[in-house]
Specification:
Chain lengths: ~450, ~450
């Protein structure tokens, strides 16, 4: 097989001049590859796929096998890039109703990505009396959300299954040398994996941050990485297509990019994409606002707005080629619902016509359309998609004129929260915020 | 108790002139209530809560009890307004991990809201060999997505459990007299409920469309309706607040409204809201683009963009007062993670400080902030919230100068899809679209 994901931009760029943008994109790619641009201490993801060796994958596989052998549930604790990548890949590859079905290893759950008290209560209630493991993912080990969740579940696991079981079934993914979690892991003798210094959170899914949870969920991380390597080696044409098209559209007043899928399992891939692009480009009062929809579901909610609201949108459709299974539409003698004209067809045939019909309708309505084709949803092509989006994000961000690898705005809420919580060291900020609130 | 949801707009309107808007809003409310505006044949929702009597609720309760008594799974088949309302309320009131837990009646599943072949396959695989029921919701009975799903699961249920079991455990929610589903239900002797002619899909959650699935999931629909009645009778001040604020912001260049929650169970309430506002307002090349985020999760993905991207956003925070359960943050002797300063606090205390800190940070960043406070997540307050959003949508849409009760743009993709599928009656459209594609 020599299939690859493809970007088709012909319905996006009609009437737009892109020659100059092509040169800009080539220059941005050169800046990225030569490491001469902004944020160039965070380019570890660029050659990450091809640098992962068999030994590393085997080590991760061994930890995954340990967790799979003893645990009914594995709680992945992390937020942002330490959550979305694994969640996205696992969902894209899983049975839609895996939560309801037993068998095939532990259920992978996610905690520490919110501060929901009832959420944590319901999860505690779920794993109570059941053997569970923990993958705790944090560069520093002091981030509030995962910190709280890890305190709670570590404490619970040690009480419930004993210290030794906990030591065997807690794995830490953290900084190589520094930080609270590194220190704790050393003390407790947890297995550990490293978050490289030069890979930012939203680019980390192909490090142990994503690979370990994905392996625990039973998926083939070797194939995932191999897919990413294909795009690292042969993906530049698609990368340039996408980066050029979205910058051309943005400069022509298209302020919102809607990532649309017709495949429910891609829902969280879009959430991962929103972090990747929103956090990379949303700075200095610029950047395309990333939104996502699941079609045809959301054609019956956001469809009207996309078809006929403000003409400041463009749409990027993720189109999956083959389905894994076949379901045939049954025939009905009486045909009261009038669907016999599609009886005997498989369901995806109808979905593909809905997809094409939707693209044409939105184009007619003034919504430029980009198409990204994915041969099917398996590890290889999801790996391709990940690397493709990452590299296109780097190129696109440089074309926009921002540092795509920082996220200074994420600190603002944290600083206020620490002040309000009266965290030691924030005394001045506490006084200031209290004065402000009492005004 | 005399608690109600509240809208607080003081951090949204600083420096904006709203006096004229107040008069406009009063006029729009008058137009709505007098039934003299556009789309006035779809105002049945306006006095719906107070017109539901005990008898209707009891009948729905009886159907729900039948399904609960014989079924392990109940598949709700519907799309758009025949899906999102029930889904939103059930999620808002459910255990976060209900899918993993047994007990308390049947699991409620949703089909017919997409055309995912693997999605349907995985659901078939789930219910195979298990007793299940179906609630099929469609005004016409010929909508493609639910039509396909209903064919498949009706056929499967009759083969698996026999015709009589199917007749007992299929309930149709449809037109009072006309349509394919009404005809079929009469032939088969299904229990039926009526979708009123004067209530559009996105305003239908307090009809049997929403009430029956919600009752099957085990929730108190009497309390839900009672909450809605409270807002029907005493909600106008909040309705006006919200409608005025969002129109003021839109006219001042705020093109995107982000509905933010700090309570994961509100995720689908936001999806319902997106349909309500997007489909009502997104027409004639205008309307606020509705987006949603789950915080603090998405502070680590969309947070950067909200804090510092294009300043065309405003934010509406859904703030839930009390949690249902308590989880205390444990103390740790070594305090490596530095979280002992919040040990002994309950988790929601931290979440509330995150919420306040986030609002202040976003306001400082130039994102006007609306706050909607909800005393807690139970049937009563969810009912309040639903009616509040519905009425504010009507007022807001009239202020925008559109018909908030139609959705002409939703037909565009369907027409193309039918042409591509060569549906009988679409011969001309088929020829035209093929010619276009072959160009």
């Amino acid at each position: 097989m020599n299939e690859k994901i493809q970007v088709i931009s012909k319905f996006a760029l009609e009437g737009l001049e892109t020659q100059g943008l092509h040169d800009e994109a080539m220059a941005a790619k050169q800046t990225l590859e030569s490491g001469s641009g902004l944020g160039n201490d965070f380019l570890g993801w660029l050659h990450l796929p091809s640098s992962i060796d068999e030994e590393q994958l085997q080590a991760i596989g061994k930890s995954a096998a340990q967790l799979r052998s003893e645990c009914e549930y594995v709680i992945c604790i992390g937020i942002g890039g330490s959550y979305l990548g694994a969640k996205a890949v696992i969902e894209a590859l899983s049975d839609h109703f895996a939560a309801y079905k037993s068998g095939n290893g532990p259920k992978v759950l996610f905690a520490g990505s919110n501060i929901g008290e009832d959420y944590l209560y319901d999860m505690i209630d779920l794993v109570k009396g059941h053997k569970f493991g923990i993958i705790v993912i944090s560069k520093s080990g002091t981030t509030t959300e995962p910190g709280i969740a890890f305190r709670i579940f570590k404490d619970m696991l040690e009480r419930q299954e004993g210290k030794e079981f906990a030591q065997r079934n807690i794995v830490a993914v953290t900084d190589a040398r520094r930080g609270a979690l590194r220190g704790l892991a050393t003390q407790e003798g947890y297995a550990t994996y490293v978050i490289p210094d030069d890979v930012g959170g939203r680019f980390s899914v192909l490090t142990p941050v994503g690979l370990l949870p994905i392996a625990v969920a039973g998926f083939d991380i070797t194939a995932l990485v191999a897919g990413a390597v294909e795009m690292e080696r042969e993906g530049d044409e698609q990368v340039l297509n996408y980066a050029i098209a979205r910058n051309a559209l943005y400069r022509n007043g298209k302020k919102i990019e809607i990532l649309a899928n017709f495949t429910p399992r891609l829902h969280f891939l879009a959430e991962w994409w929103k972090q990747l692009y929103g956090e990379s480009e949303g700075k200095g009062h610029k950047g395309i606002f990333p939104a996502s929809v699941d079609f045809t579901t959301d054609l019956h909610s956001m469809g009207q707005m996309i078809q006929d609201g403000e003409r400041t949108l463009f749409e990027t459709v993720l189109s999956v080629g083959d389905q894994d299974h076949e379901v045939i539409i049954p025939s009905d003698e009486k045909d009261l619902d009038g669907l016999n004209y599609i009886a005997g067809k498989n369901v995806d045939y109808v979905n593909k016509m809905a997809e094409l019909g939707t693209r044409l309708a939105h184009i007619d309505g003034g919504v430029p359309n980009l198409l990204i084709t994915i041969p099917r949803l398996n590890e290889r092509f999801v790996g391709q998609l990940i690397y493709f989006f990452e590299k296109a994000c780097g190129v696109s961000g440089y074309m926009l004129g921002v540092n795509p690898f920082d996220q200074p705005g994420v600190e603002a809420y944290k600083k206020n929260m620490f002040a309000l919580l009266e965290k030691p060291g924030y005394e001045e900020a506490t006084a200031a915020i209290k004065a402000k609130l009492n005004k």
